[in-house]
Amino acid sequence: MEPLKIYLRIKRENRVFFFECSLLDPVEILKRKLLPYYKQEIQDMRIYLGDRLLDDKANLQDQAVPNDSCLILKLRKGMSGEWDE
């Protein structure tokens, strides 16, 4: 049986990316899909569902990410250690 597929949007500033994912995918997979678009390492990306930071190693189902969610991508600003607003 194929794992349940969901559709997600990931937004940062004025860009929105659309992805088809499995509920069993860890958040790290989403970050890997974003690598071609940003010159950042995975550890320099954070993905949020609302105000909640998603764990890279946990899958989407365990973190209760619903279908058609709009997730927020935040990037680390240079070497300062600060993150996007």
UniProtKB/TrEMBL annotation:
<protein>
    <recommendedName>
        <fullName>Ubiquitin-like domain-containing protein</fullName>
    </recommendedName>
</protein>
<dbReference type="InterPro" id="IPR000626">
    <property type="entry name" value="Ubiquitin-like_dom"/>
</dbReference>
<feature type="domain" description="Ubiquitin-like">
    <location>
        <begin position="4"/>
        <end position="77"/>
    </location>
</feature>
